[in-house]
């Protein structure tokens, strides 16, 4: 098997057109305004998720500090009462006054916690994220779901993973308008992530999610045997090509596909003919 690891996003390209993937592998860069705007939108989506994760982190920190302060107040009050009842010295009164100051601090922390929880709930609602824990790439949190499978010569990093009750669902966020049904190439990529989750965590996910922007309902891609068979078949084809056992060519007859292809300028098999003398 080839040592050149295939990424899940390469599988998406392969699903669009095998030749587009191959051109990318051989140094033909994707170009066009859609590529730049796609990158920009992806960064915006990353920033939105980062805000949410930062807010959740702050909320957890405030909650732990509040718990510690309440515990401290409890101990202080008990100690003060003990001193007042059994010793009767003035120190008990001082401790009660100190506890009151701590209570003020605790009230402030509680207020901050409520505000932060409200913000988190709103962001989760806006982004339709449910209750699950979000495992995101390491530039967002310490948990980095870089998934790898030596067995399949595959690696990938979904935009994030939803983790709830031991179940992990990989999520890929796409830019552009939400289609009625997800494109084959996107489904293939989601399938690649499902395969990686299955391999890495030893448990099959029920499926993956494809999101077109963060504020629309996600499409669910079921991780069923048929999709797994397709993912494995495509992986085998790609590994064969990388190992020099097969050649890669266009696998469709759709000029519109070539028209929208970001590598059409470097492609000798494109179906949309450039205007005479032109190079677009
Ligand atoms: S221009 Fe057409 S044939 Fe060439 S890589 Fe793109 S989609 Fe494939």
Can you put this structure into words, describing what you see?
With 280 residues, this protein is an alpha/beta fold. It folds into two domains: 6-40 and 133-266, Alpha-Beta Complex (Lambda Exonuclease, Chain A); 51-126. It is 53% helix and 12% strand. The chain has seven helices and eight strands. The chain has helices spanning 8-16, 18-25, 33-87, 91-126, 184-201, 225-242, 255-259, and strands at residues 6-7, 133-135, 147-149, 154-156, 160-164, 167-174, 207-212, 219-222. A five-stranded mixed β-sheet has the order 2-5-6-7-8. The protein has a three-stranded mixed β-sheet with strand order 1-4-3. The longest helix has 55 residues, at 33-87. It is elongated and about 95 Å long. The chain starts with 5 loop residues before the first strand and ends in a 21-residue tail after the last helix. Residues 140-144 have low confidence and may be disordered. Iron/sulfur cluster binds at residues 17, 19-20, 23, 250, 257-258, 261, 263-264, 267, 269-271.
Q: How is the topology of this model organized?
A:
Elements (H helix, E strand, L loop, with lengths): L5 E2 H9 L1 H8 L7 H55 L3 H36 L6 E3 L11 E3 L4 E3 L3 E5 L2 E8 L9 H18 L5 E6 L6 E4 L2 H18 L12 H5 L21
Parallel strand pairs: 1-4, 6-7
Antiparallel strand pairs: 2-5, 3-4, 5-6, 7-8
Bound molecules: iron/sulfur cluster.
């Amino acid at each position: 098997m080839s040592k050149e690891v295939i990424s899940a996003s390469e599988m998406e390209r392969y699903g669009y057109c095998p030749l587009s993937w191959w051109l990318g592998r051989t140094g033909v860069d994707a170009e066009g305004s859609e590529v730049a705007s796609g990158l920009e939108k992806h960064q915006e989506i990353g920033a939105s998720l980062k805000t949410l994760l930062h807010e959740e982190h702050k909320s957890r920190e405030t909650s732990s500090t509040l718990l510690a302060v309440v515990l401290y107040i409890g101990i202080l009050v008990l100690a003060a009462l003990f001193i007042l009842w059994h010793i009767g010295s003035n120190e008990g009164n001082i401790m009660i006054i100190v506890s009151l100051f701590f209570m003020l601090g605790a009230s402030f922390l509680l207020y901050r916690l409520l505000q932060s929880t409200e913000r988190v709930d709103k962001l989760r609602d806006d982004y339709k994220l449910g209750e699950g824990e979000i495992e995101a790439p390491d530039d967002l949190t310490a948990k980095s779901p870089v998934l790898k499978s030596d067995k399949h010569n595959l690696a990938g990093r979904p935009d994030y993973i939803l983790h709830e009750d031991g179940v992990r669902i990989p999520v890929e966020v796409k830019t552009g308008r939400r289609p009625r049904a997800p494109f084959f190439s996107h489904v293939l990529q989601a399938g690649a992530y499902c395969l990686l989750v299955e391999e890495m965590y030893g448990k099959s996910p029920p499926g993956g999610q494809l999101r077109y922007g963060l504020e629309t309902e996600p499409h669910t891609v079921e991780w069923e045997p048929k999709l797994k068979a397709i993912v494995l078949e495509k992986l085998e084809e790609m590994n064969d090509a990388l190992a020099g056992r097969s050649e890669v060519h266009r696998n469709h007859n759709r000029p519109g596909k070539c028209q929208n292809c970001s590598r059409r300028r470097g492609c000798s098999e494109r179906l949309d003919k450039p205007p005479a003398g032109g190079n677009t």
